[in-house]
Amino acid sequence: MSRGPSILLLLAACAGGPDAPGAGASDGSTLTTASASTTTSPAEPTSLAEPTTSTSASDGTSEDNPFIQAPDCGCMKECDLFAQDCPAGKKCAPHSADGDNSWETLKCVDVVPDPDGVGEPCEVFGPIASGEDTCDVGVMCQFLDWDTNTGTCVAHCAASPGSSDEPLCAPGSFCAITSDDLLNLCLPTCDPLAQDCPNALLCIRHLYDERWICALDASGDEGQAFDPCVRPDACDPGLHCAEPELAVECDPMASGCCLPLCDLDLPNTCPGQGQACVAWYPPGYAPPGLERVGLCALP
């Protein structure tokens, strides 16, 4: 598997599990993903601390925090992503006006003949953030392998009748929106214990939401239990990039450490010395179907 990041951490990204021993709240560096406008309840507890090597998402791109961000450049938008109001034969797409890896505006781009649909393989033309790809209107090429510029078509969110305040997505996905509406995507959700993402994608926790989403596996030859990590997509399927303090086998000087997720209803099989399966969510906070999710950690 290529070690190059995808544009979206589909993305995206993740926050740690709440109320674990020694847990604090800090943002982890994530795979290239849109900064979602989805919010959680004010009463949601703090989460397991993530590696703290990154800057915040609003600071733009960096090696440790490779979010594709939308800088305040004052760029003119040609179209509306929800309305898809481009002329026939074109689609509205997030676009980098200067050819770098940051989307600054929205542009009408050509739709290729016989375009690819949602879930189908796709290809990006030119720079990663060009907005030009082989996907159909209302669809964007994501989960990118930067070595080949190929990925999978993901749908943009649809506007609710008469309003974009409550965007719509198909069942099994939810709408994540960047600042200033420069990007909206229906991110597929998944089961972290089943690791049921298609195409060998990882199931990791979304940074700004309680949901778990699919993301490209950037672990390469590393990412096994107790390996150091700096971002959630750097661990193998079924592992989470957590604080090194949660296992004696982890390098205490590392930014993060790959630790197994576990099932609270099964006997303890955690590999670390003295580890137990610690509940990811405190009572009453687990979304439906995720009540059994735990993380191997020192209790």
Please tell me about this protein's structure.
The protein is an all-beta fold and 299 residues long. The chain has no helices and 16 strands. It has strands at residues 90-95, 105-110, 121-123, 139-145, 150-155, 158-160, 163-168, 173-177, 184-188, 202-205, 212-215, 228-229, 239-242, 256-263, 276-279, 293-297. Strands 12, 13, 14, 15 and 16 form a five-stranded antiparallel beta sheet that branches. It has a three-stranded antiparallel beta sheet with strand order 3-5-4, with no helix packed on it. The protein has a two-stranded antiparallel ribbon with strand order 1-2. The chain is elongated. It starts with 89 loop residues before the first strand and ends with a strand. Mean pLDDT is 77; it is low at 1-72.
Number of strands: 16
Oligomer: single chain
Poorly predicted segments: 1-72
Q: Could you give the distance between the termini?
A: 34 Å
Secondary structure category? mainly beta
Helicity level, as a percent range? under 10%
Mean pLDDT: 77
Strand proportion, as a percent range, falls in 25-35%
Taking the sheet with the most strands, its summary is:
5 strands, antiparallel
Number of helices: 0
Query: What is the chain-wise order of helices and strands?
Result: EEEEEEEEEEEEEEEE
The radius of gyration over CA amounts to 19 Å
The coarse silhouette is: elongated
